[in-house]
Design a protein that fits this description.
Length: 131
Amino acid sequence: MILLIHWNNFFKIWIDSFTKNYLKFDGRCSRLEFNLSTLFLCIMAVNVYYLSKIKSTDNSLMVIYLISGFFFMYLFINDFAVTTRRLHDLNLNGFLQFIIYFIPCGQLLMLWLIFKKGTSGDNKYGEEPKY
């Protein structure tokens, strides 16, 4: 029963991240929300990659490429918002995420974001995340 409750919370956090909190750059997000949304983005990126390797002259496949490309962009834009809120949870400016995307060793910052505990209590970016 306890495991079911935790899965229900994971699902709620994941849904909120992609609906209610979509394009929300203010406030804070927990490690759990950040990790769930990043994991889903990685899974979808792998799926889009393997989908692009399919060779066909069928026009219906082009529609699948187009739909998956738009969906991936939706997730990628959401990743910017989640990363900004995660940096806010650490009491840092959201513009630091550009280090992740444009500096070669920036992925080390991503590892730090995954494991670093956020600021306890309120900080200048808002209240502590509930979950």
